[in-house]
Structure formats: structure tokens, C-alpha cells
Write a sequence for this structure.
């Protein structure tokens, strides 16, 4: 697929990894829908950066916990930009909750955002595309799916891997679905951005360094441009998954 001129939706695209993916898509020529939940100012800044490239971009708010709002998000993209051709499911929640502490509400919230929303958006994308249209679904995951350890985050990320493979089969042959599993790319959001990386206690794996946003974006673009990869997990984690 040539991304130039394609309509792309990136969830959670106001900041951090989501913003870098949206900017990379804009730089590649896509018309970008920048989804946000609460970070309106950040989303508008992402839109302005894409527009400064001479590309079309819009910010669309939706609470991914609400299936009706997720469906409305897909409809809004189609109305404002056209049918979704590239879907990047980046938004997720991560709460460090152990088995004895997780509540059913927290369990349901993780599944709603981390699994159900990507499913609804992929289903809507399939409905929007014509029989001869081509598309890409890229799910952002976590290298820890190789060793799920946390409730309910780890379980939902394992479920997302299953969803990716099932979508690859169900949406074939015109849509390819893959996932990118990340290691240490940015410090956790609850750590000050100016804190030196050497002070953040993270096992960096065989690569012995943190990854870059550009490396994540380049992986995404590779999966968009190559049509013969589907149902695959690309680990951008410095080798942490093999330890």
C-alpha cells in the first residue's frame, strides 16, 4: 500500500507514541483523524503539526469505554475524511492491579478500551471499505504479552494479540492486520519527562538502550507498505521478549 492520500485513524493520538504515529502518517501523505479522549489541547496540537505539513487532519473526541461513541468515532472519520483505510489502535489503559485487588469494574474498563474498542473500529472499517478496497489494521501492544503478569492489563493485551490474528484471517485478503509490541520507548507517563533515563529502573534487554519514537513509526510504515505480512507480531523492544 502507498500511504499517500489514504485516510488513517490513530486512537490516543494527542501525545506520546500516538502523536508520533499520527505525525509519521501525515508526513507519508495520509489524511489523519486524530482521536483523543480527554487531551483536547494535545490533539489540536497534533492536528496543527500535521496541517503544517500541508496535510489534512481533524481531531475527534470519543470515550472508548462507550461502544456507541466508538461506533460514532468511525462514522465521524468517514464523514469528515472518507472511509478508514489505515486503522492504528494505539489508545490503551494500564493500571498496576494484582489479582486480589482487581474489581469487575476495572476488569471491564480494561477490556472495553484495550480490546472491545479496537474490535468495533475494525468492524466499522470493514463495513466502510468496498469489496475491492485495501486496508491496514495495526494494533499497538506490549512485549509483556509473551509473559502476561498483571490483571487486567496483561490479560487484555493477550486478548488483543488474539484479536489481531483473528482479524488477519477475517479481513483477508484485502486488509492486513498486524501488531507492534513495544518495550521501553518512553518513560512511564507518571515519571517526570526531564528525569534522566539512567535513574529509571527498567530492564532494557539485549539492546541495552531505550527505543525511539522514530523506530516505532518506521515499523508502522513498514507494515503499511508491505502487503505480504499479516497476523504477525513485530517486537520493538530491544529483545526483551526473548529473555
Amino acid at each position: 500500500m502507498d500511504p499517500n492520500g489514504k485516510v488513517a485513524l490513530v486512537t490516543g493520538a494527542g501525545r506520546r507514541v500516538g502523536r508520533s504515529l499520527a505525525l509519521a502518517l501525515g508526513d507519508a501523505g495520509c489524511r489523519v483523524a486524530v482521536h483523543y479522549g480527554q487531551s483536547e489541547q494535545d490533539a489540536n496540537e497534533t492536528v496543527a503539526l500535521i496541517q503544517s505539513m500541508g496535510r489534512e487532519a481533524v481531531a475527534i473526541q470519543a470515550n472508548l469505554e462507550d461502544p456507541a461513541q466508538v461506533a460514532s468515532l468511525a462514522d465521524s472519520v468517514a464523514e469528515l475524511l472518507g472511509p478508514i483505510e489505515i486503522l492504528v489502535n494505539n489508545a490503551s489503559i494500564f493500571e498496576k492491579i494484582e489479582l486480589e485487588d482487581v474489581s469487575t469494574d476495572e476488569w471491564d474498563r480494561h477490556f472495553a478500551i484495550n480490546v472491545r474498542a479496537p474490535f468495533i473500529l475494525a468492524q466499522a472499517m470493514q463495513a466502510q471499505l468496498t469489496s475491492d478496497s485495501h486496508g491496514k489494521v495495526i494494533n499497538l501492544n506490549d512485549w509483556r504479552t509473551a509473559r502476561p503478569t498483571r490483571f487486567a492489563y496483561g490479560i487484555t493485551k493477550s486478548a488483543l494479540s488474539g484479536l489481531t490474528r483473528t482479524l488477519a484471517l477475517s479481513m483477508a485478503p484485502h486488509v492486513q492486520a498486524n501488531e507492534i509490541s513495544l518495550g521501553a520507548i518512553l518513560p512511564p507517563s507518571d515519571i517526570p519527562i526531564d528525569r534522566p533515563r539512567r535513574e529509571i529502573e527498567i530492564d532494557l534487554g539485549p539492546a541495552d538502550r531505550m527505543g525511539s519514537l522514530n523506530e516505532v513509526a518506521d515499523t508502522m510504515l513498514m507494515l503499511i507498505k508491505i502487503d505480504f505480512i499479516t497476523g504477525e507480531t513485530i517486537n520493538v523492544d530491544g529483545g526483551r521478549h526473548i529473555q
User: Anything to note?
Assistant: DSSP finds six helices and nine strands in the chain. Residues 104-128 form the longest helix (25 residues). The two ends are 34 Å apart (CA to CA).
